[in-house]
TrEMBL record:
<dbReference type="Pfam" id="PF04237">
    <property type="entry name" value="YjbR"/>
</dbReference>
<dbReference type="GO" id="GO:0003677">
    <property type="term" value="F:DNA binding"/>
</dbReference>
<keyword id="KW-0238">DNA-binding</keyword>
<dbReference type="InterPro" id="IPR058532">
    <property type="entry name" value="YjbR/MT2646/Rv2570-like"/>
</dbReference>
<dbReference type="InterPro" id="IPR038056">
    <property type="entry name" value="YjbR-like_sf"/>
</dbReference>
<protein>
    <submittedName>
        <fullName>MmcQ/YjbR family DNA-binding protein</fullName>
    </submittedName>
</protein>
């Protein structure tokens, strides 16, 4: 499967953004890339080796953001029962996929849902 250059650029932007959050760390459980804060995943970035389509999975508590994310081409509630808790998987390579800026907003929302208050204060410049 050929790697979609546009999707890869977007993926790289989102990864950098996620890892720039206060206290964020990159880990590779199950051979996937994830960004964690306080030992909890706030964004699943999947694999970037071309074996699967590029995508991100974020936790969106805000109903409007959650509904919007699910309207993206190919988006769906995350597997393994995570969808029930607000996790949404969004493919990056589909025509009409969201822009990196919007995806970064969603990554930030996911981070805010999971990060401890002191790190959120740091993010807000507190």
């Amino acid at each position: 499967m050929a790697v979609d250059r546009n999707a890869l650029k977007k993926w790289e932007k989102i990864r950098q953004f996620a890892l720039g959050m206060p206290g964020a760390a990159e880990e590779f459980p199950w051979g996937e890339t994830v960004a964690k804060v306080n030992k909890k995943v706030f964004v699943f970035l999947g694999v970037d080796d071309g074996s699967h389509p590029l995508g991100v999975t974020v936790k969106l508590k805000d109903e409007a953001a959650h509904a919007h994310a699910l309207t993206c081409p190919g988006a769906e509630p995350a597997g393994y029962g995570l969808g029930k808790s607000g996790w949404v998987s969004i493919p990056l390579g589909h025509k009409g996929a969201p822009a990196a800026e919007l995806l970064c907003d969603w990554v930030e929302e996911s981070y805010r849902t999971i990060a401890p208050k002191r790190l959120i204060a740091e993010l807000d410049g507190g």
